[in-house]
Amino acid sequence: MTVSVIGFNEEKRLLACLWSLSEMVCKYPVEIIGVNNDSTDRTADVYKAVELPFYTETRHSCGYARLCGLQQARGKYHINIDSDSMYPPRYVETMVEALQRPGVVAASSLWSYIPDKDHSWLGLKCYEFIRDTHLWLQSFQRPELSVRGLVFAYHTEYAKKEGIRVDIKRGEDGYLAFQLKKYGKIVFVRKRKARAVTGYGTVGADGTLFNSFKMRFIRGMKNLAGIFSTKKEYKDEDSNLVK
């Protein structure tokens, strides 16, 4: 099992991520490597301070960083870890157990946010419950749309055959999941032991939690019919292409 921790200018959060991985409880052999996406801060120094082997990827994007981790992975399975997130002790073990099921080629789990002065505990729980339910329903026919890179695990061999797209700004994880479907099933892991904790990311960029929910609800309702049908091809929007 290979865990690759990718980071771009994450010196303030990387140590917390690595600390959470140091608490790992796993009955399977695990190698942990880092990927420094040519950071301009002290991300590389953090890797060095904890003596974690790491590789520097000079081309900027999540796609290039994840691809670097995949190319260096030696384990049968591969998990990309986002350096601004923290993971429960049995996260890796739980994901490996999902991958060992007959016919399974990839697994995706869930994530939570830390309450702060701008996001109430109750508000976050309601938001996460509705989001999780939507992702779960979506995972039956279109699991590739329920995949997120920070909680995604898969068979290394098949992923290396397909590669990871670097010509798009977002969605490289979902596209990889879409390609992996030809080899087997993608399962949705709902166990608490596999739930990561992360920053607000795009949720924070939308302003208030209510505004983020409203935007996603409207988008979800427009695509509601698609949850119950499969799709053989996706078209990239021009705005998502790397120029």
Which regions contain 5 or more consecutive residues with pLDDT less than 50? none
Task: Tell me the strand percentage band.
Answer: 15-25%
What is the helical fraction, as a range of percent? 25-40%
Number of continuous helical runs:
9
Total strands? 10
Instruction: Look at the structure and give the mean pLDDT.
Output: 90
| Global morphology | globular
Q: What does this 3D model show about the protein?
A:
With 243 residues, the protein is of the alpha/beta class. 38% of the residues lie in helices and 17% in strands. The strands form two sheets. The chain has a seven-stranded mixed β-sheet, sandwiched between helices. The N and C termini lie far apart (35 Å). The model has no long low-confidence stretch (mean pLDDT 90).
Topology:
Blueprint: E1 2-7, H1 14-22, E2 31-36, H2 43-49, E3 54-56, H3 62-72, E4 77-82, E5 85-86, H4 91-99, E6 104-108, E7 111-113, H5 121-141, E8 152-155, H6 156-162, H7 172-180, E9 185-188, E10 196-198, H8 201-205, H9 209-222
Parallel strand pairs: 1-2, 1-4, 2-3, 6-9, 7-10
Antiparallel strand pairs: 4-8, 5-10, 6-8
Descriptive labels:
3-stranded mixed sheet; 9 helices; globular; 7-stranded mixed sheet; alpha/beta; 243 residues
Nutshell version of this structure?
The chain is an alpha/beta fold.
